[in-house]
Amino acid sequence: MPLIRVPKSWEILNPQITSETAFVNRRRFMTNLIGAGVSASVLSLTGCKTTTNSKTALDRSSTEAYSGLTRNPNFAKVDRAITDEALATKYNNFYEYGGTKSIWQAAQALPTENWKVEVAGLVKNPRTYDIDDLNKKFPIEERIYRFRCVEAWAMVVPWVGFPMKLLMADVEPKSNAKFVRFTSFYDSKITPGPGLMSQFYPWPYTEGMRIEEMANDLAFFATGLYGRRLPKQNGAPLRQVIPWKYGFKGAKSIVKIEFVEKQPVTFWNTIGPNEYAFEANVEPDKPHPRWSQASERVVGPGNSWSWETRPTLPYNGYGEYVASLYS
């Protein structure tokens, strides 16, 4: 995943806020800037080496463990081993904190105390949830999902959380709600972004999906992983997990969920629509403009060139659940 911020005058949350001329000019400007920046991020990825030395090892006790956790039998295993926890919690994209995969230390600045999630827009029952409310209101379970990044690397993660459709049932979307927009936490003093180019990104990070996609049984809100509450670098305290889509579609550290009538503007699709589609399903036959998606590298110890390579599965292996959404 790539790299960008925009002054508050262009923090686009609704395409109708900005004039078409201003929007097109800014997009062209950003696209020109990104060519070099995104390429640099890909180079840093392919030369990456994952390490777990004791000096930088994460302290598991820093996140609370779930008690009485049950694993959903329908999502109890996949066709490969679960990724080592030390790798899954230290090899992360979180552009609010930097453009490399080693952002876990910087992400500790995220303030998660008294976290609120507002659910608004075209719903009968607008809500503002406390994060603890979410963990108590909805049945929490563990699901093992494949995770596929648009950058062609992959993991297997045991997520903890609840199906998105449960929250939908609680707020009751209106009949004219066709899409859902997710907004991540952003504060320029706390989330500096990936360097000098950050001032041109359309912060805050926003993502979106069709309402039928959110209602699918696979769509998941994660509040934890590996049996514990989410670490900050993994998107604490609430993130989207949509296993049939590329990872950038999963907004982290969500503060607002809005049900809307029109397709929302989203972060990466705004920056590079030819590279980061709004739909962004995992499709091995549809290459990224700068690399193939036909295969993926499974994150493991050592240099990335030594990781196991596997064929990419259509819809990341979840076609039986979601292919009918796109027929």
Question: Would you kindly provide a written description of the structure presented here, covering whatever features stand out?
Answer:
With 327 residues, this protein is α+β, with helices and mostly antiparallel strands. Helix content is 18%, strand content 21%. The chain has 7 helices and 14 strands. The strands form 3 sheets. Strands 4, 5, 8, 9, 10, 12 and 14 form a 7-stranded mixed sheet that branches. The protein has a 5-stranded mixed sheet with strand order 3-2-11-6-7. The longest helix is centred in the N-terminal third of the chain and has 27 residues.
Summarize the structure.
Helix content is 18%, strand content 21%. The chain has helices at residues 20-46, 85-88, 131-137, 164-171, 211-214, 267-271, 319-322, and strands spanning 49-50, 116-121, 127-130, 141-148, 153-163, 179-184, 206-210, 220-225, 228-229, 239-241, 254-260, 295-298, 302-303, 308-311.
Furnish the topology, listing elements before pairings.
Elements: H1 20-46, E1 49-50, H2 85-88, E2 116-121, E3 127-130, H3 131-137, E4 141-148, E5 153-163, H4 164-171, E6 179-184, E7 206-210, H5 211-214, E8 220-225, E9 228-229, E10 239-241, E11 254-260, H6 267-271, E12 295-298, E13 302-303, E14 308-311, H7 319-322
Parallel strand pairs: 2-11, 5-12
Antiparallel strand pairs: 1-13, 2-3, 4-5, 5-8, 6-7, 6-11, 8-9, 8-10, 12-14
